[in-house]
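Possible regression after last week's pipeline update?

I re-ran a chain I had predicted before the update to compare outputs. Posting the input and the new output here so someone can diff against the archived version. Not blocking, just want to make sure nothing changed silently.
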Amino acid sequence: MRPIHTALLLVATFPATGVPQAPSDPARPPVAAPAYRGFTPGISYREFLERARTLADSDVVRCQTSQRTAQVMECGVVIRGPNDAARFYLSAHFIEGNADVVAFYDSAGFGDKRGVPLVDRTKKELTRLFGRPHPIGKSGWEWRYGRRAVRFNWRGRGTARWVSITLMDKDVMDRIARYAKTAKSRKS
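New output (post-update):
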């Protein structure tokens, strides 16, 4: 009887002795935020300003608060990429101090043939950074990271092309409900 008692005692103490145990309800690890040119969805207002100012192309970061509350704000500036000198108009929308949307806009090909290469170059860069995209319609791609996402859209006419890269954080975006009136309350 003694060996069985010892064996039961050992089995009962395994979790306490450092033998790895699988949790009964495994929590998913947090999904890393996708970063593009040093910006991430959900970036704080302060971090955005610091980064945007260092990349500003002889431009000033301009911000405007909502007419209803200072908790909602938009900022924009023309930036130049640190590695490739690409120029973008950078825009961000903030709710309670964090960005729900950070967007990069570029265009090319007005009177020349640089428009199509701009789209191709951007597609290559984003695929290298984020992997294989999920197509959205005829001119859009998306990469999902939990409740965060990166979207790439392009439009064209003739040789001209417009591109936008948008970083979104739906958790921050959901906070807008505190400041926006519902359709019913606007009517009354």
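Follow-up from reviewer: compared with the archived run. Confidence is low (pLDDT under 50) at residues 1-26. Marking as no regression found.
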